[in-house]
Structure formats: C-alpha cells, structure tokens
Amino acid sequence: MKRRGDWVSAFIFLLPLLFTLAVAFIYAFVRTVYFSFTDYNLFHITKFVGLDNYTQLFADYRFVLALTHSLVYAVVVTASQTFLALLLAIVLNQKIRGLTFFRAAYYVPSVASSVAITLIFIWLMNRRGTVNWLLTALGRYWPLIVIGLALVILVQWLQVFSERRHGLPARAFDPALLGISLLTGVVVTTILGQLGVVHPYPMADAVIPWLTTRKMFLGIPLPLLSVMMLNIWTTTPTMMLLLLAGLQDVPQELYEAADMDGATPGQKLLHVTVPAIRPLLFMVITMGLIGTLQVFDQIAIMAGVAPLESTITLAYYVYWNMFGSGGLPKVGMASAAALVLAALTLVIVFIQRRVGFSEKGWYS
Amino acid sequence: MRDREMKSVTVYRRGQAYQVDAHWLARRHITRKIIVYSLLILLVVFMIGPLVYSLISSFSDNPLSWPPSIASPRLWPPNWAAAWNLGVQGGRSAWTGGWAPGGKVQLTVTFRYPRSNTRPALPRVQLLAPPYESGAANPAPDTQVEVIQGQIEPVDDGDEISYNVILTHKGTETYPLLPMAVIGPAGSEFVRATLPPVSVSSRSSGTYLTWKNVTPGVIGYVFSSFIGAWTTYKGKGGVNLFPRWIVNSFVIAGIRILITTLFATMAAFALARLRFPGRNALFFFIIFTMMVPGQVTFISNYLVVRDGVFGLSHLLGMKTFLNTFWALFLPSLVSTSAVFMMKQFMESIPKEIEEAARIDGASTFRIYTQIILPLCKPAIAAVGVILTFQGSWNEFFWPMVVLTQDSKFTLPIGLNFFLHYYNSVTGSVWGMILAGTVISVLPILIIFILFQRYFVEGFHMSGIKQ
After folding, report:
1. How far is CA B59 from CA B71, B216, B221, B253, in A?
2. How many CB atoms lie within 10 A of CB B377?
3. Residues B328 and B412 grouped into a single domain
4. How do residues A100-126 score in pLDDT, each as one tens digit?
5. Which residue of A3, A8, A14 is the best one to mutate when testing the B interface, meaning the one whose CB has the most B CBs within 10 A?
6. B64: in domain
7. What's the mean pLDDT in A339-343?
C-alpha cells in the first residue's frame, strides 16, 4: 500500500531528531573542522591559520603523550579484557543454574556510575590502601604460594600418570583429579606453614604510589596502568557473558566430532570454538577498541590526584585544551585533537564494515 | 557391543576410543560443576566485593587504616545502646543527640597501669573544637568537666582503673557536637570506654583518646560519615549542597525520561513505520553518530549553549544557558541510542494491526498515539525510563562542561568535586567520600535489582556505548 502523505508526517515526527542531529551533530562537526583551522579562543577575533594547529599538535609533547597513551590503553585493555573474557567463558561453558543471579552480580560495576567506581578505586589504590596491603600479603606469603603450586602440579601429574597407565583417558587438567590436587596442595601447605617448615618472607610493607607518581612500569605510567586495571575489571565480566552466550550456541556435536578425529584441546579451541564465535569475538574487539579509545571519565577524575602527564589521553587532552589548562581556551588545538580522535575511531568502524558485518550481527 | 554393559561408557579422546566406568565419568562431571560454580562465586566476590567493602568502610572511623579492617565499631550493636544513652543524657534525643542546656553526660573510661605502689594520676580531659568544616560552634566554654576515679580491678600484670568523666552543660545554647579527648598518663594502656573513641594513640606524653562527638545519638553515631557527606559542604547562605545535588540529579533524570519517551518514540515510529526517501540513510547516520566521541561535538555545543541556543534563551529572560538545566537537555534532546533501540522494538510489532487501522481511516498521528504507543509500553519502560534514568544519573562529561556553579551540580559532578575539594588523602575524609559514593550508587542499584532484565537487554543492544 502506497501512502503519499507519509513523508510529510514522517518529517513532523522526525523534527526533534532532525533538529538535534543538525545542530548538535552536523553543525557541531562542521564547526569543529572549521575551528581546527583557526586560532579561536572564545574571546578574540578569529584568524585563519591553515594547518598550524595540526603541526603544533604534533610538536606538543602532551599531545604525543596523549596519543600514545590512548593507543596503548585501547590495545592493552581490549586485548586483556577479550583474552580474559574468552578464557573465563571457555572454562564456564556449560549449563549454569542461577545464571540470572551471577549475571546481575557481574553487571553491577557497569551499572554504577564511572565516578563512583573510580572514587572507590582511588581509595583502594591509595598508598595505604587495600591493594597495597594485599600485595604486601602476597609478597610475604610467596614461598608458601610457590610450594603450594608446585605440590598441586606434582600431585596432578602423579594422578594423571597413574590413570593413564590404567588405560583411562585422563586429561592434564582432568577436573576430578585437579580437585584432589588442589585440596592436597592447600592442606599440605597450610600444615607446613603451621609447623614452621616454610616461613613467610619478611618483606617490608609495599607502599606503591599507584596514582601520585610519574613512575612507569613497562613504559606505561603507573596511574594510567591503574585506570587500565579499573577498566579491565569493569568490562571483562560483561564481555564474558556475551561470549558465553555465543559459546553455548556452538553445537556440541562439533566438539564430539573433533574428539573422534583426534583433536587436541588447543586444536579444538582454534578450529572449532574460535571460528564458531568469530563474528561475536570481532564485535567484542571492535566495540572494546572504540570504547577504550574514547576513555574520558576515569581519566578526568584521576586528574584530581595523578599528574597530568601520567594519565592524559586524547579525549582528556581535548577537554584540557578547552578548560583544563588554566589559560585561554585553545579551541583550535582542541578541535584538531578531537578530529584526530574521531579519525582513529572511524578507522576502526571502517574496518568493522569492510570485514563485512551486517548491522544485525553487531548488536545481537 | 560393550555399550550394553551397565557401567561401561565409550569416550573419545584425541581420536581414540576408551571404555570407562560410568562412575569415573560422573565423578568428572560433578567435580567440573564444583569447579565452575566456585569460579562463578569467586567472580561474584571479585566484582561485588569492592562495593560491599566500601559500603562497610563508609561506617569506619578511618577507611585507610593499615592493615585494612572491616571491623567497624559503628556496626557493633552494643555501641548503639551506648550512643542512645549518651544522646539522651546530652541532648535529650536518642536518635540525633546533641549537647543541650541541662545535659549531663557520664562516660566511663578504663585504663590499665603496670602494677606499682603509687597511685596513678587522674587522666586529663580536653574539650576539643569541632572540625572546622562542620561549621559548628565550640561547646567548650559552656561545659564543665569532672573526673572521678571508679573501681580498681587487679589483672595479671597490673591494675585496670575505671574513671568516670562527667560533663555538665552550664550554658544556655545547644550545640550539635561535643568533641573531647581523654589523655591517660604515660605508660597507661587504653582498655575500654562506654563509647569507643575514634582514635587511640600512645605518645610519650600519654595515651590520647579522642571522640568526634560524645553525645551522638544512634543515628549520629552509626551514620556519622553519611551526615558528614550530607552537611559538610555548604553553599551560599549555609545551605547543604549534597542534598541539592541529589535533587538536581533526580529532576534532570525525570525531565530526560519525559523528553526521551516523547521524542525518541516519535522518531523511532517514523523510522520503523513510515516510508520516506532517505530512511535507510538516516538510520545509518544515526548509528554513525552513536560512535563519534562526544569530544568532537562538545566544543560547538558548548558555544551554542553559551550563546543561549541562537538567542532562544532571551525568550526565557536568560543571556546564556550555561549553568542551567536547559544546557543539559538541548544537545541531547533526542537520544540516538534510544531511537535505535525503540526502532528495533517497533519493527517487531505486526504490520497488520496498523494496516487495519489505516483502512478504518485512522490518521498517522492516531496510529502513533493509540496503537503504537500502547503496544510499546515494554520498550518505553526499558529504554525510555530505566536506561534513560541510568544514563542521566551517571552522566559525567557534558554536565561537567556546562555546570560550573556548585549549586547546579549533579551528583557525579559533586562527588568528583568532593575529591578535588578535599584533595587530600587523610583517612577521615575518605569516610565521607565513600559515604557520598554509596549514597550515589544506591538509587541506581535498587533500580537495577528490580529491573535487571531491561538493563541486560539494553547492554546487548547498545553495545557500542560502553
């Protein structure tokens, strides 16, 4: 049925949306492009400066820092959260009762505001905070932990060895045997510790200044590393739930067939699991990259505690040029940096499109 | 066939067939279950633990104590009884306490001394000034102090001596707080007190015990960090700003819900149900806008809002929309992600219902109001109300740009401001920051627990926005 009046009424219904898109998006985008070629500072008369802002941008050590931080942040966080989420999903891949409860628990940090979560993290990562205290405990008890782990491996190996000799198909991580190994390891280590055979290592309190420092670890400033851990902690379980849903749709027959064909667990992962959830995995990765490239909230909140050079990312650099530096807003610089950020995001979106994702697969 | 035998099962591993005992296999299934559920529970602790821990610590006197402790005297019921009694004695209010005229408080403090023949000196009592930021008056001039020695109890390596500290209100004014320190002579050791002190420190000059408030009442005692968060930061005219921020957040979220429900359903209706040129292009454009970072458009949007949206603000008698709630709504009048999700939902409504109405001569507007909207109630509840509330309640970047006046802050901006304001890492302040954080998380957590399903759907649908 063809309806001629439709486009008129459609226009009326779309009016608020079109207004928003036109003013808050298209006009805004065009203006940002325009500003990036000027020396506008919100007050003085604007002068056209050509590509000066862009050349200045790459001469500004803060921008270079922000760009590297953003890229490193995006790659490290996305890689870690995807890897951890996949690992967890594979381990947990079976029928789970009470999944609603677990799911609710895992979503809580994503539901709470970034400010609340970041404040809690800043508190935990204080010099005298709980994280350092846990690290101290870990540092003191490492002899026990190492011995415990060695025991677990030894007992597990002995059991697997004896089962295989009896012609039973025991796997290296056979759950029933692993349960016994873990139990033996924990009990024996506790007894050894109680008897004083193994001593905790007398380490001084670990007082790592996670936030108020310019120190680096593997080339990443400690405060930025803290934000990374915060982000990985928040998003890994939600990603895991997405992947778990995907894994549970993989037909069990595929694994059985692989078993019959003599596939190792590693081969099953690479040739059955990963291909089956490839679209989902791809979505999780691109989504993660887009989200992490734009990280702002956590960085802005940390800015009250950590040195600027140790946390600044592209999104925060844009804001900082406008309102954070204390001087006149450098609108031109901010705009140019914002466009770099947009370009980076669009590159990922473009790749996502090219690899051929229908819009349905994206949001499944 | 061996399969026929009751207890034997064939298992394939790496291309080899094995005959195994059914029990052998069942044992593996059960232990695997145990391992999986242990891991699930461990993850729950890992994800919720920090939140629960900060909730408990917001009741602690010093959330940065080393080693960290979750034992908080304020959560210990016998202390509630003590706080109740002291509140009644001092301020005639068991709940909120205070230091009122005619009040007379008796606090028993016990010290342990090494055994000796000389009688130890009486502990000194010092009335302290209330913390500067509380703005409370100093009750010291109106308060009389008396210390009486109570009973002596010998213990294995010394004597435990109790002292009754009696405070009497001699003036005519009522004070909200009565802070005090009791200093035991050098060498003494603190044993117990009617109400536990917030800090105990041994110095060469003596053992210092301090109370932030000797007459707290139950609420004043248990929720002291929360009261601190609520009342410490004051704006013009001494108004508490923290409750103002909560109200602001609720008002803004409420208006957002109305706007989104109306405008997003309108746009989604047109996209899902009406035919017009460029429909698909518009839809793709919407998805595109969802991925562009807010930092790209905020510069121009800030200017638009500053200039009152092309002078529209002059109609309302304002020069600019900065520091008004208008600024929050204008750039995001229609949330594109809400449009996206609503559209997906509307497409699932069967076309026949609409076609029938059209044949009956219903106008497009009537179809929208009388057919589509009622059928969209679940989507409106999920996207329009719940997810919009969450987004608005947690929003940080844009409010931070346009709201710079402390009385206009929303809760996240206010909390962030708290951190900068106190910009210190001393323990007692963290109690207040954590209390504020807990208050801010509570509404969204309650809504999440009640409407979990909608959140999960929303997360899956708007995956791009992390």
Report:
1. 9, 14, 9, 29
2. 10
3. yes
4. 888 888 888 988 999 999 999 999 998
5. A14
6. no
7. 94
Token pair belonging to A98: 């009470």
> Which of A49-53, A268-272, B129-133, B350-354 shows the lowest mean pLDDT across its residues?
B129-133
DSSP A46: P
Task: Specify if A7 maps to a domain.
Answer: no
Token pair, residue A237, equals: 């379980």
On whether both A203 and A224 belong to a single domain, the answer is no
To the nearest whole number, what is the mean pLDDT of chain A?
Answer: 87
Among A28, A126, A260, the residue with its CB nearest the CB of B64 is: A126
- One domain for residues B283 and B166: no
Q: Is residue A266 within 8 angstroms of chain B, CB to CB?
A: no
Q: A5 at the B interface (CB within 8 A)?
A: yes
Distance CA A162, CA A167 (A): 9
> What's the rounded Cα separation, in Å, for the pair A5 and A3?
6
Residue B163 covered by a domain: yes
Tell me, yes or no, whether B98 and B161 share the same domain. yes
The reply to whether A245 and A321 lie within a common domain is: yes
Q: Residue holding tokens 């970034």?
A: A114
Listed range (A41-50, A153-162, A340-349, B412-421) with the worst mean pLDDT? A41-50
For A347, the token pair is 């590159």
Pair B213, B244 in one domain: no
Domain range for A197 is 128-207
- Flag whether pLDDT at B247 surpasses 90: yes
Which of A:270-329 have CB within 8 Å of B?
Answer: 283, 287-288, 290-294, 296-297, 300-301, 304-305, 314-315, 318-319, 322-323
**Interface-testing mutation among A63, A111, A287, A295, with chain B (most B C-beta atoms within 10 A):** A111
What is the pLDDT at residue B428? 62
> What are the start-end ranges of the E strands in chain A?
216-217, 220-221
Question: How many separate domains does chain B show?
Answer: 3
Residue A47 is assigned to a structural domain of this protein: no
Examine residue A2 and state whether it is found in any structural domain, yes or no: no
Asked whether the beta carbons of B159 and B214 are under 8 A apart, the reply is no
Pair A175, A262 in one domain: no
| B63 domain-assigned | no
Q: How far is CA A65 from the centre of its chain?
A: 20
- Residue A228's pLDDT is 95
Mark whether A231 and A345 lie in a shared domain: yes
Written as six digits, the tokens of B259 are 């706007």
The residues near B93 (Cβ < 8 Å, ≥ 6 apart) are B87, B217
The shortest CB-CB distance from A342 to any of B267, B292, B420 is to B292
**Ranges assigned E (strand) in A24-95:** none
What is the complex's ipTM, to 2 decimals? 0.88
The mean pLDDT value of chain B amounts to 86
Same domain assignment for residues A270 and A293: yes
- Interchain contact A210–B (C-beta under 8 A): no
Within a domain: B61: no
Q: Which residue has the tokens 């749709």?
A: A249
Segments forming the whole domain that contains residue B439: 237-461
The answer to whether residue A26 is domain-embedded is no
Same structural domain, A89 and A104: yes
Domain match, A249 and A260 both = yes
Residue B183 forms beta bridges with which residues? B124, B208
Cβ–Cβ below 8 Å for A11 and B448: no
B316 lies in the same domain as B449: yes
A 25-64 → B contacts, CB under 8 A:
25, 27-29, 31-32, 35, 42
Here the CATH number for the domain that contains residue B355 is 1.10.3720.10
pTM: 0.89
Q: Give the pLDDT score at A115.
A: 93
Please say if the pLDDT value at position B3 is more than 60.
no
Residue A354 has pLDDT above 80, yes or no: no
What pLDDT does residue B461 have?
A: 60
Residues A99 and A132 in one domain: no
In total, how many domains does chain A have?
Answer: 2
pLDDT at residue number B52: 93
Of B275, B301, B393, the CB nearest to A3: B275
